[in-house]
Amino acid sequence: MGCQMMAALDHPSARAQNRLTRVSEWFDSWEQSLSRFRLDSELSQLNRSPGRMQSVSPVFWEVFQLSMDIAERSSGLISPLVLDALLQAGYSQGFELLKPSGNGINTKTGSPIPAVDRLQWDIKSHSIQLPPDMHLDFGGVAKGWAAHKAMNKLKIYAPALVDAGGDIAISGLRADGQPWPIAIADPMRPGDQLGMLRVGRCGIATSGTDYRRWKTGDDWQHHIIDPRTGRPAETDVLSVTVVAPTVMEAEMAAKVVLISGSQRGPEWLEDQPHLEGLVVLEDGSILKSLNFEQLFSE
Fold first, then answer.
1. 228-252, pLDDT tens digit by residue?
2. Options 3.40.50.300, 3.10.520.10, 3.30.499.10, 3.40.50.1240; CATH of 5-297
3. Exposed (0-12), middle (13-18) or buried (19+): which is 140, by Cβ within 10 Å?
4. Distance (Å, rounded) from C-alpha 212 to C-alpha 233?
5. pLDDT value, residue 102
6. How far apart are CA 110 and CA 81, in angstroms?
């Protein structure tokens, strides 16, 4: 999925340790369905077969339905149809393999991402058909889903935390009743942190333009596509960290705030009573939702 994974169980038993060894197997299996970086994955095979109704696995169907729900709840700011825009921007392989390129998107032009209602699917047969000009990439939705799924598998043994590339799913307080400490990285000073979150059961996600960046020609690109333009989002927000009831909600909200920018993004966040967040702007200023300080210490 193009990122590092980490899982923790707050219990010293050998049984808990043995369960942790299964996590890499789960993620490998999910990648085989959901990763665009594997040419033989279920996702890649579907993208190579437009115009034909194809049945998909239960895992793929679950993530596909989740992505449709998130597209609707985000009013189209999060879309699973951004693959072509990502490729045009130069994000054609795992981030660790990206090199500066003279090719890529013209940052001054682009095409809006098509609406997801152009997709066709059948609930009974769990089948999907892509139009010839549309291709799927589940991106952060798949990461958040995988973190949540792995956490649910682990929590029956002990309090669990799973971090999938910054998308963090936490089952509840630690075994001693204390919250988990989660550092928030400082996007202005790599290696430093802005402070610590102390949380129990929740999901946490951070989206930013500070890490997954690459140069295409003379222009810096990043991986957060604005479906309204089909280009990397033009925003004055550098990074967003959101705490939500689930990591999937946190992932969605962080991207909505980042794409929306410093005027509309924080206002949207405050209108969501079940969300708390911290927003770092490109000028270094920091905005926090009303109750974020209850979870945060510098």
1. 999 898 999 999 999 999 999 999 9
2. 3.10.520.10
3. buried
4. 13
5. 45
6. 14
